[in-house]
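Long-time lurker, first post.

We've been arguing in lab meeting about whether zinc ion would sit comfortably in this protein at all. Half the group thinks yes, half thinks no, and nobody has a model to point at. So I'm putting the question to the forum: if I give you the sequence and the SMILES, can you give me back a predicted structure of the complex? Inputs are below. Any interpretation is welcome too.
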Amino acid sequence: MWKCKKCGLLVMFSAVDPEVDADGCYFLCPGCEHRNKLENVDKSGEGIALAQPSD
Ligand SMILES: [Zn+2]
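Top reply:
Settle the argument with this. Predicted structure of the protein with zinc ion, as tokens:
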């Protein structure tokens, strides 16, 4: 699960659609609409594996 950095809501992967803009990947918290950053951790160069930065 992902966790909203603003309100702490736990979000199922299937509950949100990750989006991409000029700044990168993110998902919008369904609770507070905070923009939570995601990063592509795929190392194969063939696909996308999104993860939430731990900072
Ligand atoms: Zn939130």
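For your lab meeting: The mean pLDDT is 93. The pocket of zinc ion is lined by residues 4, 6-7, 9, 29, 31-32, 34 (CB under 6 Å). Whichever side wins, do check it experimentally.
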